[in-house]
Amino acid sequence: MAIESMHINRKKIIKVLLFTLMVVGLFMLGANQYRMKWWPFEDGFESLSIDEILPDQNAKIGSVFGTENLRVYNLPIDDEFPSGPFEILGNKRFLFISKCGEAYFTALDDNDIERTQSPQRLSKSDDDDDDAKPLVYCQGSSGVKDSLRVNNSLYVSYIVWDDMQNGARLAVSEFTLDIVNSRLVYKRDIFTSNPAIKEPFLGMQAGGKLALGESDEIVYLAIGDFGKPQGVQDTSTSLGKLMKINTKSGTVSLYASGLRSPSGGLYFDHEAGDLWETEHGPRGGDEINLIREGSNYGWPLVSYGTMYERDGNGDYYGNSYNGHEGYEKPIFTFVPSIGVGSIARYPKSGRNAYWENSFFVAGMATTTLYHMKKEGHRLVYAEPVLSGYRIRVVKIDADGRFYLKTDHNQLLMSE
């Protein structure tokens, strides 16, 4: 019995030693990852403040078809959720626009992104009059929705408050982009949605995504339902519509309808001539749509999600949920939702030939970037390739370099 007891105790001792070694190993791994200076290899904890224990400022897009190393930059901007858009200006310069309409011109040096000018508030006035009425209605999830650079013009979509009608509208204005002097100069309004939406409304469902079309004169604008589904199938309203704007002639035409919340992304594929749109479903049923002129995408009558919005009589608007019969079907649906966001295609001229004919799509709710392979007019799968970042904007340049802006004031950029 004594021998058996000694044998059992020896097993316990071995287990304790193995557990201790595992804990020490994990500690060493964490110390290395978070750059902690710890004895006996460095100077010790006594000289290290908690602010110096920083996560690694690198990230990686990891796919079975290839990888892309990213550098994570903290942005010198003051923004709120949901954060605003940004533009690549060239020569390592960027323009960030906050949700509440402050423009930040910045430049990248070896280690940081720094402001080149004090923030400029978007305004129709030439001066920075602090007492002037703000151009952007920035309450709750309202605010700036998107921006689009076309040569020396910058188009900005945003929520504006109509004092006469006591309601909110989605507006698009054109600004002259003065990169040399880091300034935006108001030029004109090119679109205002109809009707003005009374409170309460959902600014997060206003849409406002912009895309440059088949020429520099064509701009597409996706408008959401503002949380008012009853107006989407009404052709006299702008709600749930996709508009085609000719910026030269000033004409605005209805291009497609039946949208719910195109708050994620609108992307025109200049290589294929296709217009892609992402939108949030009601509960599940996030969609990626290939937009065809004259098509109706069915909201609020059909959805692959679960309906929870009712009309004035307490009835659901549609009776064909978990289906899309009679209307244009999405190319890809996420059930459950991922909080589908920005979408961009990897170019044929990119550095990774395996990603040709692929899209990259942000999942904001899942804090994940997805790689999606395109076959014909189908997207055949969603491969998670980067996690841990709530990505608001996805841009990929002609060389295949990634620029990913997060809701936490970060820019992830290809090294």
Automatic annotation (TrEMBL):
- Indicate the segments annotated as coiled coil, or none if absent: none
Q: Which SUPFAM superfamilies match?
A: Soluble quinoprotein glucose dehydrogenase
Does Membrane appear among the keywords? yes
Superkingdom field: Bacteria
Q: Which UniProt keywords apply?
A: Membrane, Transmembrane, Transmembrane helix
Sequence intervals crossing the membrane:
12-31
Matching Gene3D superfamilies, A to Z?
A: TolB, C-terminal domain (2.120.10.30)
Q: Where is the Glucose/Sorbosone dehydrogenase domain?
A: 134-409
What the entry lists under PANTHER family is as follows: HEDGEHOG-INTERACTING PROTEIN (PTHR19328), HIPL1 PROTEIN (PTHR19328:SF13)
Name the chain's protein: Glucose sorbosone dehydrogenase
Q: What is the lineage of its organism?
A: Bacteria, Pseudomonadati, Pseudomonadota, Betaproteobacteria, Nitrosomonadales
